[in-house]
Each structure stands twice: as structure tokens, then as C-alpha cells.
Amino acid sequence: MASDRFQAPDYYQLDELYTDEQKLIRDTVREYAKANISPIIEDFAQRSEYPKHLIPGLAEVGAFGPYIPVEYGGAGLDQITYGLIMQELERVDSGIRSAASVQSSLVMYPIWKYGSEEQKMKYLPKLATGEMIGCFGLTEPDHGSNPSGMITNFKDNGDHYLLNGAKMWITNSPIADVAVVWAKDESGRIHGLLVEKGMEGFTAPETKDKWSLRASITGELVFDNVKVPKENLLPGRSGLGAPLSCLDSARYGIAWGAIGAAMDCYDSALRYSKERIQFDRPIASFQLVQKKLAEMITEITKAQLLTWRLGVLREEGKATTAQISMAKRNNVDMALKIAREARQIHGGMGITGEYSIMRHMMNLESVVTYEGTHDIHLLITGMDITGIPSFRNDGK
Ligand code: TGC
Ligand code: FAD
Q1: DSSP for 259-300?
Q2: Ligand 2, residues 143, 168, 169: which to mutate, most atoms within 8 A of Cβ?
Q3: Distance from Cα 169 to the centre of ligand 2, integer Å
Q4: pLDDT tens for residues 276-295?
Q5: pTM > 0.70: yes or no
């Protein structure tokens, strides 16, 4: 891969809206990513391997649980800083941001919000340092967009629960030490259970042959009469709202992350277009190329402003699920379109590993589907503005 010459676009001077601490942390993560992730990421993606050796470094720059309070091993940072960290990680690869999103928002967040004090002390500090890796099991083979239909279930079996079922498409599952698993009790109520690697009857086979997020590891979670100690149930909240609230946090991070991927594609296309000569002129001098670039920076700037405002609302505890959905949907769609246009500007070179464009494009094909598909988010907006859910025939 060509050397990383990334220069972040900031057309509307958003830097003026960030505090010195936010900029310092963002720049630290940017430098870390340039020095440690950019040089190796293409090779790992080509070989379809997760670069596990990055885990301690990612933990050191605060990628795991940045907003988790310091007493539990987190960095106690604000929501905009969390977003900026996700942006810088996804600027190099969505798979690296995925690993950080899952660890922070889908594993540490539910333990912090809904776990007992013992669970928080047992897991959070080790998850923050990367000593433990976590995963989040909500999706099932027959229940993706509709998690409320899940069939994974547990029964009270005296001094433990007996867990059965299967989860699919789970980021980090084959390498996870602990899985936050969402399952129904005997009355059909959803709860979170902490299932640890090595528990008898629990396996996490890898999902192979992905063309997207190749530098991220994905797998299943299979439970065959797994005996889960009763103290591993998250006591603080039950019902579908518990996992959905974790998704709010992760989707918020993705809204920021997608901007990073878009910025990288735009920056690469701008540089390439000024350096590439055709018809004795740089291709940047052609109006059709300028149109593409001008539209890219316009869309990136709009997304940056939308997401900054969302960050302020989230920090104030006022961001709604529907506002987060709008930003996740808009920004991932924006990034995917920019990746496709940037690929065109790079001509044939755009399909090679010399540039990050095609990798971003393929990664974003997962990002547009996970954490709620593009269309599900549109329907969440529709439900919010009309007051009418469209998901089921009965209007519920
Ligand atoms: P619905 O009836 O709307 O809600 C059920 C209950 O939940 C409450 N609720 C929320 N609570 C907290 N936070 C939220 N954001 C909430 N949204 C809803 C709601 O009030 C209700 O509570 P109660 O007390 O009345 O029971 O639920 P529904 O079954 O109609 O579904 C709505 C829908 C379709 C929007 C939802 O199911 C959905 O978002 N589906 C998409 C599924 C999804 O996003 N899955 C993601 C899996 S994880 C993943 O992809 C990780 S990728 C990670 C990576 O690698 O980065
Ligand atoms: P489906 O729900 O079957 O949807 C298929 C199509 O139907 C989509 O276009 C969808 O928009 C459309 N559709 C569905 N319902 C409606 C409707 N009511 N109206 C209109 N259109 C509709 N899950 C986890 O729990 N944990 C993870 O860590 C995780 N990581 C993932 C990593 C990767 C690489 C991928 C690809 C997925 C991951 N997922 C994870 C799963 C992800 O959240 C689901 O793929 C996603 O929620 C969609 O579910 P599905 O794939 O079953 O598609």
C-alpha cells in the first residue's frame, strides 16, 4: 500500500468547535493509526486476518471504553471524543473501528449500565486494557432486523441457567473471552447473560470467506445446554430495550466512523486527481472530476456538522434513538457513495491494494447492513415523525 499521506478535510472549520483535549486525543489516535495500522492493514485484509497484535496499542490510545468512568478502567471521556476516536480508526479501516465499537459500546456499555458491581469490577478494567476481548450476540440466523423474535433461551436449573440457541454474524466471537448474549427466559422476556469462553457446550466458530471487513473476525455463538452461573445475568435491565440502548451507543460511534472512511477516500481522490496526468493535464482540471470532488466535500461537511450536533445532544443525554438512526444511515450511505466515486477517480488503480478505496468500499457494504440496515433506519425515522411503526402488519 502507498504511504499514508492523509490530510483531514475541515471545510467549515469544525476544529473551532472542539476542545483542545478533544483535538489532542483525536490527533494522537490519528498518528497512532498512521504509524501502526496503515502500514499493515492492507496485508491483513488481503489475508483475511484480524491484526490481534494491535489490541494493546488500541487500548493505550483509549479505543476501548473511552467514556467508561475511570474507576472501572475507562478514560472517562466525553461523547464527542468517543466519536472522534471512532472516526480516526475507521479512517484507516472499518474493521478496526468495529472491534473498538463492539468492545466499547456493545460489551463494556451494557456491563457498565446494567451489570452488578461485581460484574463491573470483574470485567470492565480487563476489557479496557484489551486483556479481555468481548462480543455481543443479538442477531440469530432467522432473526436479524427483528431481534424480538429471537429463539435463544435459558431455563432456571437450580443454581445455574441452562442456555440454548445460536447467534450469527458476531464480530470478534472466535477470539472473545466473554460474550454478552441476549436470550429469552421462560416467560419470553429478554435478558443479557455473560457467557465465558470455555464454558461447556459453548462454541464460537469463525465465519469464513467474507469479501467485506476482512481485517475483522466474525463468527457464530452456539449454545448447547450451556450452564451459565446465575451471577452472570445482567441484573439492571430486561426487555428488548436493553440491547437496543447499547445499539444507540454503537450506532452513534458508527456515524462518526463512517465520516473517517469518507474523509480518507476523498483525500486520496483529491491527491490522486492532482497528480494523475491525462490529455497532458491533471485529471483534477476536468469539470467532471471537479464535480465529483466538490460533491464529496459538500457531503462530508454536512455529515460532520450533523454528527457534531448529535455529539452535543448525546453528551447532554438528549439524543434520541431516531436522531442517531438518521446520522448512522446518512453517514454510512454518504461514505459508501464517496468510496464508489473515489474509486472511479483512481481509475484502474482504484481496484488495487495500493490505495485504501476498494477496501473502504467493501467494508462499508457491511457497515450499511449491521447495527440496523439502511432501510430499517429509514423506517425508524418514519416511525418517529408519523408515530406509526411500519414493521409489522398489526402496526405494532
Ligand atoms: P420496539 O417495540 O420498537 O421496542 C421494544 C422495546 O424496546 C424499547 N426501545 C428502546 N429502549 C432503549 N433504547 C432504544 N434505542 C430503544 N428502542 C426501543 C421500546 O420502548 C420497547 O420497550 P417496551 O418497554 O415497550 O417493551 O421493538 P421492535 O421489535 O418493533 O423493533 C424495532 C426495530 C426494528 C427498530 C428494532 O428491532 C431494530 O432496531 N432492529 C435492527 C436490529 C439491529 O440493529 N441489530 C444490530 C445487531 S448488533 C450489530 O449489528 C453489531 S455490528 C458491530 C460492529 O462490528 O461494529
Ligand atoms: P435481514 O433482517 O434478513 O434483512 C434483509 C433485508 O430485508 C434488508 O435489506 C432489510 O433492510 C430488509 N428488511 C427487513 N425487515 C424489513 C422491513 N420491516 N421493512 C423493509 N425492509 C426490511 N449482529 C450482532 O448481534 N452482533 C455483532 O457483533 C454483529 N456483527 C456483524 C458483523 C458483520 C460483518 C455483519 C455483516 C453483520 C453483523 N451483525 C451482528 C448482524 C447485523 O446486525 C445483521 O446482519 C443486520 O441487523 C441485518 O440482519 P440480517 O442480515 O438478518 O438481514
Answers
A1: HHHHHHHHHHHHHHHHH-EETTEEGGGSHHHHHHHHHHHHHH
A2: 169
A3: 9
A4: 999 999 999 999 999 999 99
A5: yes
